[in-house]
Amino acid sequence: MTRGYRTLLLEQSDFAKSTSSKATKLLHGGVRYLAQGDVALVREASVERGLLLKNAQHLSRNLSFVIPAYSWWEGIFYTIGLKLYDWMAGRLSLGSSKHISRKKTLNLLPGLKEDHLTAGILYHDGQFDDARLAVNLMQTIYDKGGVALNI
Ligand SMILES: Cc1cc2nc3c(=O)[nH]c(=O)nc-3n(C[C@H](O)[C@H](O)[C@H](O)COP(=O)(O)OP(=O)(O)OC[C@H]3O[C@@H](n4cnc5c(N)ncnc54)[C@H](O)[C@@H]3O)c2cc1C
């Protein structure tokens, strides 16, 4: 609609039902896709994540995550991987990931299994209100003269 197309949406159920209603509300670049080597997907998702955080500030936010490392090798592996993840978002990065001490990891994640814990890696992704985004998308369709119908 906002790109000049005439739009008709026909939904057989409720809007944003099906898979969309099952999402965990993460606005992510896809760390796990990076682990799988799908670089193009991570780049695309990281850019879209940044654009949504800019365009829909009322329903999205920057969120920090911590990955615990249980060996020096895991610490190095996740630190390098998440630096790469930051870098792939380019100017739309949500903040630098960092290696944090064992003590700080336990402060941030009380209840974590302590045996063999060596450190943590803190990184940034996003979280969004998926239901509210769906409502806003419907509003945009109608504001721009399109039609969205469901049962
Ligand atoms: C457990 C889980 C967690 C997830 N967590 C996240 C997350 O945190 N962050 C994230 O970004 N992504 C997440 N995803 C992925 C995300 O939910 C999907 O990529 C997204 O919802 C896909 O949206 P969609 O509109 O393509 O498909 P859908 O939401 O499945 O929408 C397709 C719609 O088409 C309708 N339809 C089907 N056939 C017809 C027909 N013949 N006529 C009319 N209507 C029809 C269906 O009723 C449905 O509403 C998660 C997925 C799952 C399963």
> Quick one: how many beta strands?
6
**Stretches with pLDDT under 50, minimum 5 residues:** none
Structural class: alpha+beta
**H/E element string?**
EEHHEHEHEHE
Backbone CA Rg: 19 Å
- Number of helices in the DSSP assignment: 5
Question: Cα distance, first to last residue?
Answer: 22 Å
Q: Mean pLDDT score, rounded?
A: 95
Largest sheet data:
4 strands, antiparallel
Q: Beta-strand percentage?
A: 15-25%
Cofactors, ions, other ligands: flavin-adenine dinucleotide
User: What is the 3D shape?
Assistant: elongated
> Share of helix among residues?
25-40%
What does this structure look like?
It is built from five helices and six strands. The two termini are 22 Å apart. The model has no long low-confidence stretch (mean pLDDT 95). The site of flavin-adenine dinucleotide has 13 residues, from loops.
Topology summary:
Layout: E1 8-10, E2 26-27, H1 31-35, H2 39-55, E3 60-69, H3 72-88, E4 98-101, H4 102-108, E5 119-128, H5 130-143, E6 147-149
Parallel strand pairs: 1-6
Antiparallel strand pairs: 2-5, 3-5, 4-5
The chain binds flavin-adenine dinucleotide (FAD).
Gist?
The chain is α+β, with helices and mostly antiparallel strands and 151 residues long.
What distinguishing features does this structure have?
151 residues, four-stranded antiparallel sheet, 5 helices, 40% helix, elongated, binds flavin-adenine dinucleotide
